[in-house]
Amino acid sequence: MSGKGKALVQMKLSFGKRVAGGSALGGQDQPKKQRLDGEKEINPSKDDLTSKSPSRDNQGLDKGNEVKGSSSKEDDANTINTNNPPKSPGSPTSNPSSTSNPSPSQLPLPKATTTLPPARRIRLINKTGDIFHSAPPKTLLIHACNTIGSWGAGIAKAFRKQYPDAYAIYRAHCMRSVPQHLVGTALLIAPRADAARQHYIGCVFTSKGHGQRRDKPPEILRATGPAMRDLLRQAVRDGGVGEMRMCRINSGLFAVPWHETKLVIEELELGEGEVPGERGPVRIVVYSPA
Ligand SMILES: Nc1ncnc2c1ncn2[C@@H]1O[C@H](COP(=O)(O)OP(=O)(O)OC[C@H]2O[C@H](OP(=O)(O)O)[C@H](O)[C@@H]2O)[C@@H](O)[C@H]1O
């Protein structure tokens, strides 16, 4: 009996110590622990009550992350996200509380900090030449596709000729899918183990139809962002993609001016699981024929 009692007291003591060590989750249980543990525990529990440590800890962590990824312009753009109105002294939210007497129920509350992890972007690098030329193994070759299952013209025809296996996979994918569901998505086709060139093919479904029935430029542009995001997600999941190349997608038979597609791609904000690597932008080399 007395042994069990001791053990219980020890368990409670050690739990009390853990709480005092920083976790605020046990806040409601603390008065009981103070009684059990004696005066030594009173001070730490006060700290717990006043510090509301989780939000502070999170701020610290987030700041750490921001510093890690702060080398690019994209990150600067992101820090703008943190310029939430409450920070400015003259903001509407801060005025009412400063003119009336400070309300104790409001003041101690730490401001909700919605610190987002820095967004990552795509950096397009221009190169003149043939997209297929000397592409090393693991290269991802990206082109825009219709959802009908045709690589009948333009660069798609060249893809069909050079990668007949990929074409079969693309076509089967289209055949078993509803066009409306495909548009705005992507299909990453990994190379077969025995393929001569170990290239990935990235199909971004930017238009439901093709030829005369191609979608209107605004629709194509609307589908381009989500389709690129989807492709990158799949590439991250696959884990085997190396260099990334694309043609000036949408700019030929789909008749969308390249600078408009380019803007959509460069403005994409990518999150976790959508970008390979730890930091920095995603580099995609854009090939245009000489
Ligand atoms: N070897 C090469 N290396 C680098 N760049 C190359 C190149 N060869 C051509 N280009 C350039 O690549 C850009 C895109 O031009 P494209 O007209 O091909 O593609 P798009 O994205 O506007 O349209 C897609 C629809 O075209 C097809 O036609 P079908 O529907 O099958 O009839 C599909 O299946 C889709 O549906 C243009 O800047 C071309 O100069």
Automatic annotation (TrEMBL):
- Domain Macro, residue spans: 142-262
Annotated InterPro entries = ADP-ribose_metab_enzymes (IPR050892), Macro_dom (IPR002589), Macro_dom-like (IPR043472)
Task: Say yes or no: keyword Hydrolase present.
Answer: yes
Q: Which GO terms describe its biological process?
A: peptidyl-glutamate ADP-deribosylation
Which GO molecular function, any one, fits this protein according to its record? phosphoprotein phosphatase activity
Q: Which UniProt keywords apply?
A: Hydrolase, Protein phosphatase
Its family remark reads: Belongs to the POA1 family.
Which spans are transmembrane here? none
Which reactions fall under this protein's catalytic activity? Answer: ADP-alpha-D-ribose 1''-phosphate + H2O = ADP-D-ribose + phosphate
Q: Which spans does this entry mark as compositional bias, Low complexity?
A: 81-117
> This protein is called what?
ADP-ribose 1''-phosphate phosphatase
One Pfam assignment: Macro
Output the PANTHER family linked to this UniProt entry.
Answer: ADP-RIBOSE GLYCOHYDROLASE OARD1, PROTEIN C6ORF130
Function, in words: Highly specific phosphatase involved in the metabolism of ADP-ribose 1''-phosphate (Appr1p) which is produced as a consequence of tRNA splicing.
Extent of Basic and acidic residues compositional bias: 30-50, 59-76
- Region annotation (Disordered) ranges: 16-117
For this protein, what is the EC number? 3.1.3.84
